[in-house]
């Protein structure tokens, strides 16, 4: 199971950041192996919509649970729509927070625990892991020309979800080796296509799009004017072109009547 923790740094030993949409990193932890991948948060300086965009990011990374300090209404709605469990109140060292979650001492919330725009104006810029200063100047020129032909037996260029491939013979005539190589590439291509299909269907299951509550919409047209892909038209109330909507969440943030939410497609 993948758990995303809002983080101040890139490692399990770093601290939990209390903000969901505006944390510097998300540390995605596989709780079975405790391996972790740090994702830099591109939304931390957004004026609005950071919670929605960050929730989308979690859905794209196939996260099952979010562990954070606080969660506002837009992020809560979007995470819930994507089927992601939300746990607030996490603090301290990330590794300890994950351990507490595994032990069942942190519980899911059904409602947001802070107002919109919580954490806005407090911007932590992700820090590089090493610092230094210096000056330098370089200049170079070169020219190269070459001809040749090579045969390589390289592998492991593409992750195909653990598929195993037959080995290529390293001896025999050049044409035998090339034929074997061609067969192997065909097997790889099949595995890669199968994996792509699998990933595509996961993404499709996770896709979010805007949904209008016709009873709440006042037909003001604001959402139509801000949608960057022309997915909204007004016909007394707003209507969404589901094929065009990218689930960016802009209209959710801007609607003055809170008539739009993101829902699973
Ligand atoms: S901004 Fe809100 S109220 Fe205005 S048309 Fe869009 S959904 Fe309706
Ligand atoms: S979520 Fe984004 S793309 Fe979809 S209708 Fe709203 S503004 Fe347009």
Could you characterize what this model shows?
It is a single chain. Residues 126-166 have low confidence and may be disordered. The protein has helices at 50-60, 73-81, 94-102, 174-206, 222-226, 250-254; strands spanning 2-7, 25-30, 35-40, 65-67, 85-87, 208-212, 232-235, 237-240, 260-264. The chain contains 6 helices and 9 strands. The two termini are 23 Å apart. It is flat. The chain is of the alpha/beta class. The strands form 3 sheets. The chain has a 5-stranded mixed beta sheet with strand order 3-2-1-4-5, sandwiched between helices. Bound molecules: iron/sulfur cluster (2 copies). The site of one iron/sulfur cluster (SF4) has 15 residues, from helix 5 and strand 8.
Strand order of the largest sheet: 3-2-1-4-5
**Biggest sheet layout:** 5 strands, mixed
Shape: flat
As an assembly, this protein is: single chain
Structural class: alpha/beta
> What Rg, in angstroms, do the CA atoms define?
24 Å
Give the averaged pLDDT, no decimals: 78
**Record field, number of beta strands:** 9
Keywords:
6 helices; binds iron/sulfur cluster
Task: Describe how the helices and strands are arranged.
Layout: E1 2-7, E2 25-30, E3 35-40, H1 50-60, E4 65-67, H2 73-81, E5 85-87, H3 94-102, H4 174-206, E6 208-212, H5 222-226, E7 232-235, E8 237-240, H6 250-254, E9 260-264
Parallel strand pairs: 1-4, 4-5
Antiparallel strand pairs: 1-2, 2-3, 6-9, 7-8
Helix pairs in contact: 1-2
């Amino acid at each position: 199971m993948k758990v995303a923790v809002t983080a101040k740094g890139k490692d399990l030993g770093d601290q939990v950041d209390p903000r969901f949409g505006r944390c510097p990193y998300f540390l995605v932890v596989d709780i079975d192996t405790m391996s972790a991948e740090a994702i830099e948060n591109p939304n931390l300086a957004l004026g609005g919509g950071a919670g929605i965009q960050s929730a989308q990011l979690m859905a794209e990374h196939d996260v099952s649970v979010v562990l954070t300090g606080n969660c506002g209404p837009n992020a809560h709605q979007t995470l819930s729509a994507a089927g992601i469990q939300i746990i607030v109140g996490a603090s301290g060292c990330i590794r300890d927070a994950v351990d507490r979650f595994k032990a069942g001492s942190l519980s899911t919330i059904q409602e947001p625990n802070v107002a919109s725009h919580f954490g806005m104006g407090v911007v932590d810029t992700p820090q590089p892991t090493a610092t230094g200063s210096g000056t330098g100047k370089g200049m170079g020129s070169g020219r190269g020309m070459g001809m040749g032909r090579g045969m390589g037996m390289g592998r492991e260029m593409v992750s195909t979800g653990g598929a195993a491939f037959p080995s290529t013979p390293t001896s025999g005539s050049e044409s035998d080796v090339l034929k074997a190589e061609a067969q192997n590439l065909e097997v790889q291509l099949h595995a890669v296509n199968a994996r792509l299909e699998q990933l595509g269907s996961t993404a499709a299951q996770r896709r979010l799009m805007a949904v209008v509550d016709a009873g709440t919409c006042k037909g003001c047209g604001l959402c139509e004017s801000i949608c960057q892909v022309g997915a909204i038209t007004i016909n007394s109330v707003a209507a969404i072109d589901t094929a065009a909507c990218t689930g960016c969440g802009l209209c959710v943030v801007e609607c003055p009547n809170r008539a739009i939410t993101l829902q699973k497609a």
